[in-house]
Amino acid sequence: HEELLGSGRILQKALETESLFSMIFWGPPGSGKTTLAKLLARHSRAAFHELSAVAAGVREVRAVLKAGRSNRELGRKTILFIDEIHRFNKAQQDALLHAVEDGTIILIGATTENPSFEVIGPLLSRCRVMRLPPYTNEQLVAMLERGLTEDILLSQRNIALADDVRRLLIESAGGDARKMFNALEIAASRYGKQRSFTLTKDNVREALQQRGLLYDRAGDYHYDTISAFIKSVRGSDPDAAVYWLAVMLEGGEKPEFIGRRLVILASEDIGNADPQALVVAASAFQAVHMVGLPES
After folding, report:
1. In the prediction, which pLDDT does 296 show?
2. 3-class SS at 30?
3. CA 233 → CA 21, 137, 230, 261, 264, distances in Å?
4. What is the DSSP code (8-state) at residue 271?
5. In sequence order, which residues have a C-beta less than 8 Å from that of residue 254 and are 6 or more positions away?
6. What span, in angstroms and rounded, lies between the C-alpha atoms of 113 and 155?
7. If one looks up domain 220-291 in CATH, what number appears?
8. Which stretches make up the AAA+ ATPase domain (predicted)?
9. Residue 220: closest CA among 179, 184, 171, 181
10. CA 81, CA 23: separation in Å to the nearest integer?
11. How many angstroms separate the Cα of 106 from the Cα of each of 64, 116, 117, 231, 271?
């Protein structure tokens, strides 16, 4: 991310002047949030602790804060990286406030959700929000080339990719570097221990299907699918509606996005023909926003 770490950019200056600050990286999956946090830790020579908000609680946070206080007495800074920080509840976020304010830790949070809605105000005001956009196709091309020659596992094999195979990998990733490399690794695994081989489009398509990656949440298929879903509901075709709903959820679509579109449908297309439709749609959206999908 040259816009943040390039020469003269904000994070580069913070590293050069040893004035790293607490921040929240906001961006879609696979946009480099975790990688960027680890790069900052490595170049700042700070102690680095990583927690996942899905698994960690207040106890784990307090353990890191204790280590941070010890490090501060020794003149060393401590970075606490919290992945999916939006999953921390208010009490868990409150536990970070004092330590961030007095410099015990430098907090780096990563989130795919809008921090204005998911991070409590007092903590958000002590952090700078850094927006990380999806990678461009040009950036993914460069990353793919580098991965084939420098990655510990991929570089040990001679993997040949035709231009159309590269294009399929990159366009199907939708700006998500992790998706691209996951698909590449799955496709390459079909060749077992073979050291030299040529990947085909069929290999990649099979890998994409296995990971549900053909559904691109930022591309044309994304909008075509939600359009087909809405038209199916509007046309009173429950079987088609359920099918397109399953396609979106299986492909990793956020249920909140689907819920919002249903609220719009109920308001604009159904309206006064059935006033209860908007109540039902709004209730469904609120429920899925608060609870999420059931665990599988």
Report:
1. 46
2. coil
3. 48, 34, 5, 11, 12
4. G
5. 217
6. 34
7. 1.20.272.10
8. 19-136
9. 171
10. 10
11. 11, 20, 22, 48, 50
Residue 65 burial (CB count, 10 A): 20
Q: What is the pLDDT of residue 124?
A: 93
Torsion of CA 102, 108, 109, 114, to 10 degrees: 90
3-state secondary structure of 72: helix
Share of the chain above pLDDT 70, in %: 92
Sequence spans of domains, the chain = 2-131, 137-211, 220-291
- What gap in Å lies between CA 231 and CA 112, rounded to an integer? 29
Residues 6+ apart with CB under 8 A from 170: 137, 140, 141, 144, 180
Matching residue, tokens 């665990």:
295
CATH code at 2-131:
3.40.50.300
CA distance 179 to 143: 12
**Residue 153 CB partners (closer than 8 Å, separation 6+):** 185
Query: pLDDT, tens digit, for every residue of 117-154?
Result: 889 999 999 999 988 888 888 889 999 988 888 888 78
Looking at domain 137-211, its CATH architecture is Orthogonal Bundle (1.10)
**Could you tell me if 52 and 68 are in contact, meaning their C-beta atoms sit under 8 angstroms apart?**
no
Strands 47-52 and 158-161: unpaired
Q: Which residues contact 215 (CB under 8 A, 6 or more apart)?
A: 221, 222, 225, 247, 248, 250, 251, 252, 253
Confidence (pLDDT) at 2: 61
Residues of the chain with pLDDT under 50: 213, 296
Q: What is the pLDDT of residue 12?
A: 82
> From CA 134, how far away is CA 26, in angstroms rounded?
11
